TrEMBL record:
Its EC number is 3.1.3.2. Keywords: Glycoprotein, Hydrolase, Iron, Metal-binding, Signal, Zinc. Its cofactor is Zn(2+); Fe cation. Residues 59-154 form the Fibronectin type-III domain. Belongs to the metallophosphoesterase superfamily. Purple acid phosphatase family. This is Purple acid phosphatase. The lineage of its organism: Eukaryota, Viridiplantae, Streptophyta, Embryophyta, Tracheophyta. InterPro entries: Calcineurin-like_PHP, FN3_dom, Metallo-depent_PP-like, MPP_PAP, PAPs-like, PAPs_C, PAPs_N, Purple_acid_Pase-like_N. Residues 1-28 form the signal peptide. It catalyses: a phosphate monoester + H2O = an alcohol + phosphate.
Length: 480
């Protein structure tokens, strides 16, 4: 992007911010008048090129990577070989076609009803350099395949980094637009908000098959940059009539997270640090009330957040805590009553959720005074509260959630029932630029764009401290 474009974009962003600041002063939020014209919410047919199988005997497919440690110096590379186990070794290096190093992974297979999975490989590649492009090769002989990824910069308070946010993607033509628009955004990693393939909308062996097609569908992004996974209700797949009663079975075999690095006992919730962000991933569908593992883990993890190193504190979950759509209304209430006061005490910047197939952003509100006898039933404006943003609009086969509560509740700042994705571009410890992009009949349209001020570094006391820090830096530069 040239300087002029950048200037124009900044003006646009600032103008939007002014607009939003005005809106925030008023009472009611906005319900967008945009109506997405009907577009079939049907899955892409099996023979479509979006699901194409790579050529060659036993060629690796469904390639995806995720962060492999707490700090971003490792990745986990996963793929499936269809015909035989083959090799679980990843060859990698910093120059194309020169794979100086290798790492050995694991292979496993499983059944789901009568479906037999391919051979699923997971390989941890660790000890990487920061801010480096790595090339990697998997598979063997003529069927081997090569990809690349970039490691993030070291964890640090003013490290710029651009995240994408996608939820409830599925595998329709709308999903394909979301994915293509996301790839155009230039973001470096995805924070995924649960509900991946929607394979559980099928039955019997088609469930496993639709997990495979989804893995091939997203490969054009997932093979090249890490997607940080969280689970939704469509991953549970508790299907006793098929004899399948282990929750998250397909998901857990295929997708993996660096949960041990944050001392979590399960891949279903975990935390990572990446650039200037500390990202906490929760599971709406495992117990979280007091005394449960998830509760105990989160309590401990929050104490490890160091805003001097990672100013940005981001939480991901599937079920939104603030939602004014009639779809899934109040489903987040139980988790809200358990965790909301922590999110406020720790000044979480933003909580992203999916589940509701629409877009919604809250004001900074809290409802922590509520208890069953207090009578204070309504959320109140609260400067220490996170923003709650629902990005469940990836485009799956269930279609859009178009019935919003009327009138719009006071906690809801903006809502629109259409498909899209978000990006969060962190500039430094105080500023990040947030975008929500709608898929408008194939075009990518930025609808919301504003500057997000950091909740920790934005307070007056710390602003003064930061000013002092900047003066010190200026003096040091002058001395030099
Ligand atoms: C895994 O694959 C082997 C063949 O390589 C097969 O014998 C075995 O039954 C498979 N296991 C499952 C659980 O499908
Ligand atoms: C319930 O809320 C009220 C008002 O916030 C508070 O005074 C009271 O102590 C709370 N009750 C309990 C048992 O925490
Ligand atoms: C942070 O970034 C914003 C937007 O680019 C800029 O205006 C501000 O001066 C930066 N602050 C620091 C401390 O670098
Ligand atoms: Fe969901």
């Amino acid at each position: 992007m040239d300087a002029k474009m950048q200037g124009m974009l900044l003006n646009f962003v600032l103008a939007s911010f002014v607009l939003l600041s005005c809106i925030r002063g008023g009472t009611a939020g906005i319900t967008s008048s945009f109506i997405r014209s009907e577009f079939p919410a049907v899955d892409i047919p099996l023979d479509h090129e979006a699901f194409s199988v790579p050529k060659g005997y036993n060629a690796p497919q469904q390639v995806h990577i995720t962060q492999g440690d707490y700090e971003g110096k490792a990745v986990i590379i996963s793929w499936v070989t269809p015909d035989e186990p083959g090799s679980s070794t990843v060859h990698y290096g910093t120059a194309e076609n020169k794979f100086r190093a290798s790492a050995k992974g694991t292979v496993s297979n499983y059944t789901f009803y009568l479906y037999k999975s391919g051979y699923i490989h997971h390989c941890l590649v660790e000890g990487l350099e920061h801010s480096t492009k790595y090339y990697y090769k998997i598979g063997s002989g003529d069927s081997s395949r090569e990809f690349w990824f970039e490691t993030p910069p070291p964890v640090g308070p003013d490290t710029p980094y651009k995240f994408g946010i996608i939820g409830d993607l599925g595998q329709t033509f709308n999903s394909l637009q979301t994915l293509d628009h996301y790839i155009e955004s230039g973001a470096k990693a995805v924070l995924y908000l649960g509900d991946l393939s929607y394979a559980d909308r099928y039955t019997k062996n088609d469930i496993g098959l639709r997990w495979d097609t989804w893995g091939r569908f997203v490969e054009k992004s997932t093979a090249y940059q890490p997607w940080m996974w969280s689970v939704g209700n469509h991953e549970i797949e508790y299907l006793p009539h098929l004899g399948e009663v282990d929750p998250f079975k397909n998901y857990l075999h295929r997708y993996t997270t660096p949960h041990l690095a944050s001392k979590s006992s399960t891949p279903l919730w975990y935390a990572i640090r990446r650039a200037s962000a500390h990202i906490i991933v929760l599971n709406s569908y495992s117990p979280y009330v007091k005394y449960t593992p998830q509760y105990i883990w989160l309590k401990e993890e929050l104490t490890k957040v160091d805003r001097e190193k990672t100013p940005w504190l981001i939480v991901l979950m599937h079920v939104p805590l603030y939602n004014s759509n009639s779809a899934h209304f109040m489903e987040g209430e139980s988790m809200r009553s358990v965790f909301e006061s922590w999110f406020i005490d720790y000044k979480v910047d933003v909580i992203f959720a999916g589940h509701v197939h629409a877009y919604e952003r809250s004001y900074r509100v809290s409802n922590i005074d509520y208890n069953i006898t207090s009578g204070s039933r309504y959320p109140k404006p609260d400067k220490s509260a996170p923003l709650y943003i629902t990005v469940g609009d990836g485009g799956n086969q269930e279609g859009l959630a178009s019935k919003f509560l009327d009138p719009q509740p006071e906690y809801s700042a903006f809502r629109e029932s259409s498909y899209g994705h978000s990006t969060l571009e962190i500039k430094n410890r105080t500023h990040a630029i947030y975008h929500w992009n709608r898929n408008d009949e194939g075009k990518k349209v930025p609808v919301e764009a504003f500057v997000l001020h950091n909740q920790y570094w934005g307070s007056n006391r710390r602003r003064r401290k930061l000013k002092h820090f900047l003066l010190t830096v200026a003096e040091e530069v002058a001395d030099f």
